[in-house]
């Protein structure tokens, strides 16, 4: 039975044939034939020459294609399509991608569609970014374009991406588990074989243990080592050399030689070295997979930031509707204490809004009729009537999410030293092995295979491939114990090269909690009484400023209580009328105020001033001093535009202050510094910090920060301890030193053992032992990082 030329499945119903480059090829179904016909019609027949795996089965039925038209509906697109002027942008998950040739094929085909402006297929994350002109090209036609060449695409969904990653990790764990268990059993059998070097062991027992080792090693070679064979074949198909090539040659050569020695009872066997080799390589590959994982995690869940439902007002009627169905021009009511469901303009009402999720600042902002409000912000003290100005997909929070995603895609990838050395090392190794075989084939043909095998085994780049991931793993474990969660391994390299540290203010350098720092009464002896009056007035409010006045004793009874949103509160206590609020509301002097102050008025007279501040973290001054001692420049980049930012910068001795910055401003500043040659480390905690955290060379988020900030950062300070940043920098230096030592050992060992193996003085079993020992030395050296 022949196999389908496109998908590789058996052809059970002949008759679907197509001529490709002069050869008639069979196909299993009309779908695969249609896909191949589309590929040929676009002039992309070379796809079949470069692919490293069969394509996806082209069985998308006409009913399925018709269902794609639903994606053209505006109410469907608003959840995942963003607008850029006349163009639209979407991120898609693509099923069926197996190699770089798939990405090439998809991009070439889609660019034939009129109205397509941009497409980029990422073979690592199985995602595609597409931008198009909706007046020329509907989204359904783009999705059909994927189907036409044998792939399925649909709007990116977090859970499917996570499932794919979990499946890949699980596959490595299964392979590694089999290799680990098998290598232990093989090693037990090998003890008997090694004993024959010292004491006499009966021949039948040696043969028995060799056959047992062969049976135990075969599943490891066929299943556990499969990723290396696939990687080697793919590299060779694309005309490149990778470590998988030499690893596969060494594994297959050693296994075939051992099998020959077992079957014909001649020569040495290396089953123990093979199985342990596979186990260590799989361990390194798994660690590498986790370290290099790109932007496959969810940045955040938009549905958790904005309410699912909204109250739409039409005339005298109010209706509860899904927030995502709100259209521009709709009128909505936002109750006190509720979250705003969409961006809009206030029609009626005045309220204080907590915009910390957008600005990072904990102080609410007073908003009045005609002023904007944003989805996800909290209306804390008064109801509002709002007219929707943008749908959720175009809201400010959605824009921040897209900026963060774009910054993640542009994040510089600092290559490890193994990538720089592997190309030349492997090529040189293969050339030397070929030369050794040619020499001995002429001078001693019976020794040519065994000496060449010794060269391949002894110089196999196992230690070289483990040099970086084992060190990074040890460093990561050490950082985790120290309260630093490392999410991307390249942060360790950046820490050693950084020239500037960029710090957010609220929640990073400060505690993020408003506190009462000073009470100044016009009559000092009445300060305690006036403070209790102020606390009584604020007792009913959940405003952050009100929480700063919370006292343990019971508040005084307040009559005629009245809240003026954005200004303050008023009430009658013991027959006297009091007002507590901002200087502007009470017409108090502001000339000498450096921070946040509110005033208390008694019967129309100012009687007390209360100074509030956001306290510095206890470890902030020590951090700044230590960074200065290490020669790093420091910038405070904050959304707070008040005098509080100047006070904090002055008190800490910050080199540069950028205040009142929006998320766009923060990212632009960072890009500007990088353009001038700075290597920047960013530390922040708020949603407004997410784009700049994602765009920095390396970034740290506070554990108490928002989920979006933590998902955008390269590392998380679990204990909210800023001094851990210094510990991470110290460990990064040691990690770099250990990696260099590992490379020096791996390369030095190869240079030392190569002439011994090539001259025939190193038998293959000692070569295998030396290779394993070299790997263990690298692993042991890396484990020293865990003891620092």
Automatic annotation (TrEMBL):
Keywords: ATP-binding, Cell membrane, Hydrolase, Ion transport, Magnesium, Membrane, Metal-binding, Nucleotide-binding, Phosphoprotein, Translocase, Transmembrane, Transmembrane helix, Transport. InterPro entries: ATPase-cat-bd, ATPase_P-typ_cyto_dom_N, ATPase_P-typ_P_site, ATPase_P-typ_TM_dom_sf, ATPase_P-typ_transduc_dom_A_sf, ATPase_P-type_domA, HAD-like_sf, HAD_sf. Its EC number is 3.6.3.3. Signal peptide: none annotated. Residues 88-154 form the HMA domain. It comes from the Bacteria. It is found in: Cell membrane. Pfam families: ATPase-cat_bd, E1-E2_ATPase, HMA, Hydrolase. The chain crosses the membrane at residues 172-195, 207-225, 245-263, 269-287, 424-442, 448-472, 743-762. This is Cadmium-translocating P-type ATPase. The gene is cadA.
